[in-house]
Amino acid sequence: MDNWYKVTTLADIPSSGSRVVKTRQGDIALFRTAGGAVFALRDKCPHKCGPLSQGIVCGNHVTCPLHGWNICLENGLAAAPDVGCARPYPVRVEGEAVYLALG
Fold first, then answer.
1. 70 vs 6: CA distance, rounded Å
2. What is the C-alpha to C-alpha distance for residues 61 and 15, in angstroms, rounded to an integer?
3. How far is residue 94 CA from its own chain's centroid?
4. Measured between alpha carbons, how far is residue 59 from residues 11, 31, 56, 63 in Å?
5. In the chain, how many H helices and how many E strands?
6. Domain regions of the chain by residue span
7. CA distances (Å), origin 69, targets 9, 20, 47, 61
8. Which of 24, 45, 63, 97 has its Cα between 20 and 30 A from that of 83?
9. What is the pTM of this model?
């Protein structure tokens, strides 16, 4: 069973941007799309470990700032032809509070 932790508020994650949460499991990037959806991925691109939190969010993808890989925010998978996955984490929003599940 996952343990849910309140990690921030919606106001702390910019629209079409990100915020980094430091955990015992490493840095986790929280992303907020222009439509308001919130996702969480390990803050490392599967290609060369670039900081995804510093990438550009467009739709439900983030572009790695190092080499331009596009990573799906929903499942962490790299867009073809690239192959790899940034670990996704479950997120839930209750009111303005953002919770992260760390199993």
1. 28
2. 13
3. 18
4. 19, 11, 10, 11
5. 0, 10
6. 3-102
7. 28, 19, 8, 10
8. 24
9. 0.94
User: Would you state the structure tokens that stand for residue 60, as one six-digit string?
Assistant: 């439900």
What integer pLDDT is reported at residue 2 of this predicted model? 66
Give the tens place of pLDDT for each residue, 47-78. 999 999 999 999 999 999 999 999 999 999 99
Q: What is the 3-state secondary structure (H, E, C) of 32-75?
A: ECCCCCEEEEECCCCCCCCCHHHCEEECCEEECCCCCCEEECCC
Enter the CATH code of domain 3-102: 2.102.10.10
| Whether 62 contacts 56, CB under 8 Å | yes
Say how many CA atoms lie within 13 Å of 85 toward its Cβ.
7
